[in-house]
Amino acid sequence: MIGIICALEEELNEIKKIIHNIKISKINNFEFITGLLNNIECVLVLSGVGKVHAAISCQTMILKFNPDLILNIGVAGSLTHELDIGDIVIATGAIQHDFDVSAFPNRQKGEISGLNKILIECTPWIINILFNISEPNCGFKVNKSIILTGDQFISQKEDKIKLQKEFGGTICDMEAGSIAQTCYINNTDFGIIRAVSDSLNNNSVCEFKEFVNISSKNCAKILDKFTDILNKNQNGDYI
Question: Does the annotation mark 198 as catalytic?
Answer without folding.
Answer: yes
